[in-house]
Amino acid sequence: MISVASAEFIAELEGAVEGGSPARRAQMLRQVTHLFLSSANRLNERQISVFDDVLIRLIERVEARMLAQLSTTLSDLTSAPKQAVRRLACHEDATVAGPILLKSETLSESELIEIASHAGQQHLLAIAGRRTLNEASTDAILNRSDAAVCRVLAKNDGARFSDKGFSKLIAAAERDGDIADALVVRPDMSVKMLHELLLGATKAARARLLKVAPAELRATIQAVIESIAAQPSARLPEPIDYSGAKSSVLALSHAGKLSDAAVNRFAVHRQRTHVVAALSLLADAAIDAIEPLMEERDCCGLVVACRASRLNWQTTLAVINSRGHTPGLSQQELEQGKELFESLSLSVAQRTIRFGSVREFAKSGLTDNEFAAARASQ
Fold first, then answer.
1. Using an 8 Å Cβ cutoff, are 245 and 277 in contact?
2. Fewest CB atoms within 10 A around its CB: which of 11, 268, 283, 367?
3. For 307-340, b where at least 16 C-beta lie within 10 A, e where not — what string?
4. Cα(235)–Cα(229) distance, rounded to whole angstroms?
């Protein structure tokens, strides 16, 4: 029946696509979808391919609202037209791509990984919520995920993680209690990973995790906590000698060459002591004020220090990346850092770094006047 009707139907489709109104194309999409659904169980591969070609042509000419409906419909089918499904999954509008990314079994693992490598956070959220995800897929998602995506993954019982994936979630859990709470109740958390999670948690966080954990895991968690407490304190590292770096930086300053280019070069070559010494001199702040900022997971403190040093954003970004943290900052975190950098005045940045209140200021988002008022009242 379909093969007989195909020629007439394709001719009608041609007219709708080329010269039809948006309403006519939307009507055609509904008709094609209805026809496919009514006969999907009886279609062979060649016939599904015909529908695939038709849907692809309509997808290019139909508004997102209609495509979102089509995506929802096709996402539940086990034998959906493959090219149409992929086209919808790659759509830039997350309301269109979301249903397919969340539910469709037509997408292959390699296609999910490819989409995860460049899609936006809303797309990643949809993939993270899939009924099942293997280790390769979760690794791909975690390479670019923000905290919201990490929370969804951590709560997804059908997701499986490599040791690298678990480590990235644990790093995110240090800044997000919801992620930590979700991880501690996962049955696939090994004792090794549980130890890693609890090792980075505060005493208060450990107590909370012990409380939220299922009863059958509490004895194991308590044993891990006790083993951490019983470990001898690690020997304090030898203090870093900054004398050579300070001399080099001071000589550059006297020669008028302690510029963005010089600091950028230190950062690119991972000359940590020179980066710290340069920021200390340029921002007129103690080494002790700058050094801890190189160890922080986020970039807020370094943004303030670089702004106080009159560096540009590209040099600031190089300094942030020179730390070599794993996992690195997400694109969203870097964009937030840039927004802070651009909104922060030089005078406030310099006062902040010299008063030693970088963390407090970076979290508060105070304006110049508010910050000055707050300082005056202290």
1. yes
2. 11
3. bbbebeeebbbbbbbbbebeeebbebbeebbeeb
4. 15
Looking at the DSSP bridge assignments, the partners of residue 133 are 159
Rg of the Cα atoms in the chain: 28
- Residue 32 phi/psi, 5-degree rounding, is -65, -45
Burial class (CB in 10 A: 0-12, 13-18, 19+), 157: exposed
Report the distance separating Cα 154 and Cα 148, nearest Å. Answer: 10
pTM above 0.70, yes or no: no
Partners of 18 in the beta sheet? Answer: none
Distance CA 260, CA 252 (A): 12
Per-10-residue mean pLDDT for the chain, 378 residues long?
50 61 81 84 83 86 92 92 95 96 95 94 96 96 93 97 94 92 93 91 90 90 89 63 93 95 94 95 90 84 94 94 70 89 90 65 45 41
Look at residues 98, 42, 47 and name the one whose alpha carbon lies nearest to residue 70.
98
| Residue 81 backbone zone (phi > 0: left; psi -120 to 50: alpha; other: beta) | beta
- Fill in the DSSP letter of residue 144: T
Tokens standing for residue 145: 């995920």
Q: How far is CA 113 from CA 109, 141, 260, 270, in A?
A: 6, 8, 38, 32
159: β partners: 133
SS3 labels along 269-301? CCCHHHHHHHHHHHHCCCHHHHHHHHCCCCCHH
- Alpha helix segments (H runs only) across 200-330: 203-212, 215-230, 243-254, 260-268, 272-283, 287-290, 300-308, 313-321
Instruction: Report the phi/psi class of residue 285: left, alpha or beta, with left for phi > 0 and alpha for psi in -120 to 50.
Output: beta
**pLDDT number for residue 372:** 44
Q: How many residues does the chain have?
A: 378
Sign for the CA dihedral angle at 131, 136, 141, 142 comes to: positive
Counting Cβ atoms within 10 Å, is residue 136 exposed (0-12), middle (13-18) or buried (19+)? middle
133 three-class SS? strand
